[in-house]
Amino acid sequence: MLPLIPLISVAVPLVVGVLTLLLPWPAERRARFSTLIHAGLLLLLLGLFPAVRAGRPLTYNVAALLPPHGLFLRVDTLGYLLALVVAFIWFLSSLYALAYMQCEKHIPRYWAFSNFTLCGCLGVAFAGDLFSFFIFFEFMSLISYMLVIHTETPAALRAGAKYLYLGIIGGLFLLYAIIATYDLAGELSFTALRSFRFPDFSLYTFSIFLSYVIGFGIKAGMVPLHVWLPDAHPVAPAPASALLSGVLLKTGAFGMARTFLDVFGRTYLEAAGWAQIVVVLAGISIIFGSLVAIVQDDLKRRLAYSSISQMGYILLGLSLLTPYGVYGAVLHILNHALMKSGLFLSAGAIIYRTGRHKVSELDNIGRAMPCTLSAFTVSALAMVGIPPLGGFISKWYLGLGAVSGGQPLFLVFLLLSSFLNALYYLPIVARAFFNRAACPFAAFQVLPPEAAPGAEPGTRPAAPALSPQPLVPELPRTMLLPILTLAACTVFYGLYPACPPFSLAREVVKTYFGG
Amino acid sequence: MLQGSLLVLPLLGEGLRWQCDALSLLFVLLTLWVGLWAVLYSFPYLAHSHARPRFYLCWFLTLTGCVGSFLAADLFTLYLFFELMSLASWALVVHEEDYPALRAGNTYLYLSLAGGLCLLAAAVLLQTATGTSAWGRLAFLPPPPFTTQRLVALLLTTGFGLKAGLFPLHFWLPQAHPVAPAPASALLSGILLKVGAYGLLRTMSLLARWRFPALAALGTLLAGLAVLTMLLGAHAALRQPNVKRLLAFSSVSQLGYVVLGIALAALLAPVFPLAWPAALYHALNHALAKAGLFLSAGALGHLTGSLDCTAASGLAWRYRGLGVSVTLGAAAMTGLPGLSGYISKTLLHHTVVATAGSRTAAWRLLEPVFLLASAGTVAYYLVFLLPWIQKARSGPSPAPQKAPLLLWLPPFILTLSTVAVGLLPHVFLVRLIVPAAVDLLGEEEAPHLAAELAHFHPWSGPDLKGALLVVLLGLVVYAAYRRGLLPSWRPAHYYMPWAPLARLLQHLADSGKRSASTLAGRTRAALAALLVPLLARLAGRGGTDPGEYKSDPLALLLTVLTSLGAELQSAEEGMDSSYTHIARRAVQRAPFPSADYFLSLAEGLLLVTCHVLRGLDALLNQGGAALAHGIPHLFQAAAHLDEALENLSTSGARAVHAFLCRLGRLEAPPRPADKVLPPPARWEELLHLDLLNLDVAVLILALLLVLTLLYFLLQA
């Protein structure tokens, strides 16, 4: 039964997606059905935890599909961690989307393509060889285009086109790299590639390495290849933004980890010194993303640039090739997924209630939506790296990794970026909670009709401290719950970073570095 | 779980460690004592304030942060509580939420975070080099390599020095402390600054134990900065019309004394261990007296509605409790015999004399400078105190409003405790200060300390004479200030026909300014000539005016960062257009790659280069402008000093005479109208307490205080 779980978890979203499109149900029911399935998938994956912790390899080969190689699924610690975080964020985002998507068009399409993308993501996590990996990776890249362009505004279509073309270009690079790897190694499964050592440091091998870096770098938003990211993430609907930024970016980092640790191997890369390219690019991403985020006024765009910077952390940790660095990177994959999804969901909640996108319009919003903005604050502080929140832990290990890898310069980059993060996150918090004097009630005036009952147009609402009910109501419970859960997880896994399933991050390091 | 006296909680992966030694205990007791009275004071003070739950939440988080920082056994734990303290106290600073508070809060927040990041970097370096960042273990492990030591020393000094308000990084302090509500100011000034001092103590002691090779250089640097801080703080405090700003500058100056003590202690490491108790005693003195003074200043604002120095005229006679507390507080800060300031300044004076004796001749200058700074302290506390004790102006005065008990009792108790600390030096020295200092000493210093202590008699003749001399000097400085003989801050209005040196300096400054600006202009022109053709195709972007921010280094930094971000973004958009080009070509099935494509890619790359260069150019220009503005200010400051010395030497006697004449006929300004307060509720009338806050706040604090005292007694 257990080896079937990866196959089930990949196949179920695919089937459910098709059903969501075809069944003659009202939109409401399709949404609830999908959410229920996502919850079930999360539970199913949690059921795998004992087997993964025990280190038992779970493999399943669907030889009938795609004949020469077959679809090869295999569960290891790294992939399992990614799958778990994918399922968790997906479930919360679906729960949130139940209410959020009601005011959008084409609801069934959203749910169907969300399911398809989930299938792709889980497939990437569970792929046992490069061939299956590529299939799922491309599937995910192309399908998620539909999430980006969901609103069908011109801006969304433009951003979507960019996303699509760059995704395809990245896919082509990956295809070249995989074919060339097969040419050299004659093997495609990750276990076989780990024991295989590339024969030399020739230009050919280097081109393979570079193609992997470009292919995964595009997906992960590494700096010269990030151009699609700040356009694509903000235009999607908020739950989809949370998925794109919280989960889909991580598949790029995951692919990079597979390249460095499985395909090439640590010792080979250390001898070749090629990882230094990624170290430098990651360092540039960290600073670049933070600097550009400071000048963004659009909240979601600011978050998107912050994602570039945070993906830089992950890539830096991976490419340092030290145990601490890899540990920090894996932790940051998990923590960043929690934090950034929480931030995007909160930003979406603000848009949902007030229709405001810009940071400069968010005066006093915290008094109207205290729970949402408190959760936002927790996630933002975690991004800055304030202990004892999740972001601090991963930053600490990344810092240790940078210094123990003999590159203390990148410790400076990390800390500088922390400071810059504070510069663009904390003003939002200050504006939301501590801005009584400037433009006192701006956040309460232009509202959906339900919000300001009985208020004459043009008159000033009473002071919020005196009015018994805030004029912007808090969110519906299904939207608030995911946001608060994510914030609570950020706090909890900051305090106990060795709690399951985060404890598996240590197992990952043990797998690749021994001891 | 408890491991000896080490408390370890398995949190955050690394584990949080706390350890209570005598040094931590001293600071924790101080924190709780000040915190208890300040929170009691806050009940009447904040009775009608907005967002009180938030204030009390952040209040306790700040206290947690302080106590946690003092008790932290390693730098990792300390960093956690340090950040907690910074963030929570930021919320206290911006409590009023008006423009000045938010502005000061910004400076405070970002500088504190930057300081915290310095600590984090040091923690990472120590963890990698030695495997631990615990104070207790680091001292006994073999020291890390010199480069690491140097970096760690620099980072820790910067991080803690920033918190302690050391000279080049002090500018957040006079902004942030006055805008906070009075109980928060008392906490900020009394306790939060001590976290910086505490960290510096630990750092210097650690470096001394490692026999850090550059310790002499670092100590000299710190001592120099501390002296500058003392003088600058005293000079600025002298001309503040706002009471809380005066007190904030006084905090800058007094923390300079503490840091001077720390620096000299490290410099004199094995031979004169009495320097450690000196710094600790002054920290204790400053915490008690300054907290009391800030609370009194808050009471002044509460009762009269104005924070002007002159608003207090005659208030000491109407409110006897407040009058006693401001008098005692000011006297304790100036170091009158019988109060705690006397003991601590005497100890510091001994340290200074010992340094002058054991070092090169240049150190002899330290003693006069020290006396001058102390005289400055006397002078600005005269400015602070005299309005309080003048007779109120005759005439129909509004019916005196009754001060609630809790508005005058806490400052009274706090300043009374300075009397206790001053009158029982041997109890406090032996029971609190010396055990704390022993934690800082190397093992070969401890016997020295016992010997020194046996020879130390606080009320010996020379010391009393020294205190008298300082007071007399202070009167002279005050007189000079009253007659307008001290240099003023406004450089635009001074004219010195009779000071050739100053004229020369001004010429120098002017020419330097001119040449620097020409140089900057030349550079800008050359770079522009290079870049303009390339930039012509870009839409004009509004640049920021560098002059606008020159007064605030942080704002300058922020502007530079923001403009760098904007440059990068537009460069990125340029790159981006080439990507779009690829996509468009691909869709249109044009021959691909075409010459067009390469051209647009090249254009993108060129744009990036241009933008980065332009950003660098702007950075250089702004830096140049700042430098060009800074150098003349330096020269002008020197000119001020020269002028002051000349004035003092020519008209000293006349000034004293005029001062004595003046003392008699100083007039009190009109008193502002009383703030009309709503009638208190019945139970409030009874106690002036908010019961909801009372049970949480006082019980927790009292419990903590009792527990700590109990622990202390058991240990003793």
How would you portray this structure in words?
The complex is a heterodimer of chains A (515) and B (716). The two termini of chain A are 31 Å apart. Residues 439-469 of chain A have low confidence and may be disordered. Chain A is mainly α and 515 residues long. Chain A is built from 22 helices and two strands. Chain A has a two-stranded antiparallel sheet with strand order 1-2. In chain A, helix 15 (323-354) runs antiparallel to helix 21 (477-495) and helix 17 runs antiparallel to helix 19 (408-433). In chain A, strand 1 and strand 2 (71-75) form a beta hairpin. Chain A has helices at 4-22, 27-47, 49-53, 77-100, 107-126, 130-148, 154-185, 190-195, 203-220, 229-235, 238-264, 266-272, 275-294, 299-320, 323-354, 365-368, 370-384, 390-404, 408-433, 442-445, 477-495, 504-513; strands at 58-62, 71-75. Chain B is mainly α and 716 residues long. A three-stranded antiparallel sheet of chain B has the order 1-2-3, with no helix packed on it. In chain B, a hairpin with a 6-residue loop joins strand 2 (6-9) and strand 3. In chain B, helix 9 runs parallel beside helix 15 and helix 11 (275-304) packs antiparallel against helix 14. The two termini of chain B are 23 Å apart. Chains A and B meet through helix 7, helix 13, helix 18 and helix 19 of A and helix 3, helix 4 and helix 21 of B.
Helix and strand arrangement:
The complex is a heterodimer of chains A (515) and B (716).
Chain A (H helix, E strand, L loop, with lengths): L3 H19 L4 H21 L1 H5 L4 E5 L8 E5 L1 H24 L6 H20 L3 H19 L5 H32 L4 H6 L7 H18 L8 H7 L2 H27 L1 H7 L2 H20 L4 H22 L2 H32 L10 H4 L1 H15 L5 H15 L3 H26 L8 H4 L31 H19 L8 H10 L2
Antiparallel strand pairs in A: 1-2
Helix pairs in contact in A: 1-2, 1-5, 2-4, 2-5, 4-5, 4-11, 4-15, 4-21, 5-6, 5-11, 6-7, 6-11, 7-9, 7-10, 9-11, 10-11, 10-14, 11-12, 11-14, 11-15, 13-14, 13-19, 14-15, 14-18, 14-19, 15-17, 15-18, 15-21, 15-22, 17-19, 17-21, 18-19, 18-21
Chain B lengths: L1 E2 L2 E4 L6 E4 L2 H24 L6 H20 L3 H19 L5 H32 L4 H4 L7 H19 L7 H8 L2 H29 L4 H24 L4 H25 L7 H30 L10 H4 L1 H15 L5 H19 L7 H24 L15 H19 L1 H16 L5 H10 L5 H22 L17 H36 L17 H35 L7 H70 L17 H6 L3 H25 L1
Antiparallel strand pairs in B: 1-2, 2-3
Helix pairs in contact in B: 1-2, 1-8, 1-11, 1-16, 1-17, 1-24, 2-3, 2-8, 3-4, 3-8, 4-6, 4-7, 6-8, 7-8, 7-10, 8-10, 8-11, 9-10, 9-15, 10-11, 10-14, 10-15, 11-13, 11-14, 11-16, 11-17, 13-15, 13-16, 14-16, 15-19, 19-22, 20-22, 21-22
